[in-house]
Structure formats: structure tokens, C-alpha cells
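User: what does the whole thing look like in 3D?
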Amino acid sequence: MPTADEIRAKVVETIAKSFRLEPDQVSDDKSFQEDLDADSLEIVELVMALEEEFGIEISDEEAEKIRTVGDAINFVTERAAA
Amino acid sequence: MTNAGTGPVFPGIAGRLALVTGGSRGIGRTIALSLGAAGARVYLTSRTLEAAESVAEEIRAEGGEAHGLALDLSQPEAAAETCQQLAKSTRDDGGISLLVLNAGMTRDGLIMRMGLPAWREVLDANLTGAFVVTKSLVPAMIRGRFGRIVALSSIVARIGNAGQANYCASKAGLHGLVRALARELASRSITVNAVAPGFIETDMTRELPEATRQRLLEQVPLGRLGTQEDVAGAVLFLLSDLATYITGEVVDVNGGMAM
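Assistant: Here's the predicted 3D structure for the full assembly of 341 residues, as C-alpha cells:
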């Protein structure tokens, strides 16, 4: 079972890879759409990357609520603990 | 890269991974052979592995690379599974970037005599099948920021044909699918088009009575039936780097019969 810090690091890494950024550019308050300039395809790609990385399923309703980096970290942390 | 065939050389085909559904006979087979000759690494499907492998063997015999796959698109769930496996196994090579949605079937009948199974089977194989194959292979194209998708339609999608309500609807449905995907995927340099053949020389048209054949030909300004190579040429063009700025189109290959 990965620790919360490990999950956080992995999520940040996945996001950084998806958006071609350095991990230190990916802070919790960053909004995918507004700050990282993500279009709808990129958000779907990220959701699929998180699903694959953590072996979880993220429904469309859940995906819609993931708007910031912090949202993604919290969601995956909760889901991985379940 | 050597060109095994004698056909025209289309830039942007050699070395790329291609999938042709329904590639074991007719137009699909000719497209698969042309892709193999142009240096693509070809995956081709048929309902049976034997049929697919026999065409793959023809391509390999000419020095090309080809793999046969069993795929029954009238069973969309199982087909989706097979395509996801293919997406996984080709992932390290960048995935399939040239996709030819050619598989199709007919189950003709006048609407009063067309049962729901005949309707569903044709819609499943021709339209839902195209959807599941594309859905499985698009993620790799998005990742690679490149893709070419060509769906084989038919002139009857536009002009209709008595006795083929299911087939005509499935092919017209493909036009909508193509246009929606063209918009959805354009930002990743993925183009999506259809090719709509008219009357083509096939086993079916060869068996027509001479009088019927003549009647067909009277409708074609170019005065002959199309060849499978005529269709494959349009498909390869759309797959190639010559067609980078063409997306969301239905290209007619019909000798001028429906201007």
C-alpha cells in the first residue's frame, strides 16, 4: 500500500508527463483548464493516464469534478485507500 | 525503404503501423497488399485467422511485414477486447497510426421482410464495429499526435438502394462518425475521412447478367466498373502525407455516376 506522499509524487509525475512540464511546475492550486491550458482531450488523456497508473476507474461524473492538481491528488489518495 | 510493389509511392506510409479490418478479400485485401507494398507494417483482420494469415503471407512473400488477426465485428464487445489487446501489444512501437475501417457485410431484404436481427447485425458489424475499433486505437494516435483514419463507405449511403435499408443506414452513419471524429481529433493532427466506392469489379458484380451489367454501366460516365485498385489508390492517398490537409471528407470513387 503506497503512502500518501508516494501517491502525491506519482500523481504529480503523471500530470507533469501529460502536460510536458517539470514536476515543480505542478502545484496543488493549478487548474488544468485555466493554468495548465488543458483542452478537453488533454483532460481525458490525463484521466486515462491516472486510471492506468493507479489501476483505478474514474467515472465521467468523478472526472468532471477533478479541476485542479489538488483535486486529482485528493481523488486518487481517497480511491487508493478504499 | 524499398518498395516491393509497382504502384505509386505514397510518402508517409513506409514504416508506419497500419490496420485494415476485413483485409482478407475484395477491396480490403487490395488495400492491405498496397499498404504492404508501400512499406507499412500491416495488421489485417478477418473473421477467421486462416483467411487473415493467408493475405499476410502474400505480403510477407513480397518482402513486406504483415500479421493476420481474427476479428468478428458483429460481436462488438469481443471485438473491442481484441482491439485493446492489439493497442497494448503495439504500444511500444507507437501504436497503429494508419487505420482502415473496411470490414462490412450485407444482409439485404426489402424493409417489410427485414427482421430486426438482419438490421442489427449489419449496423453492429459496419457501424458499431467501426466505433469500437477506432475507440481502441485512438488513444495511441492522440499520444503520438498523428493518425490517419479512413472508413470505407459506399455510393449507396448517398443515393440509396432498394433492399439495403440496413446497409445504406450503416454507411451513412459512418459519414456522421467520420465528421464528428474529424472535429474531435483535429487538434492532434489526426485526419478522418471516408471513401465511397461506386460500382466496383468484385465477385458479386462479375456474376451479374450481361444486361444488368450494361444497365449499371450506362449510369457511369467513365463507362467502366471501378477496379479495387481504383479504390485502394484513394485510400492510400488519404493515408499518406499528401493528404495532410484533408479531413472530414467523403471521397467518391465512382466514375462520375453521382455528380
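In plain terms: Chain B is about 45% helix and 15% strand. Chain B touches chain A through seven residues (CB under 8 Å).
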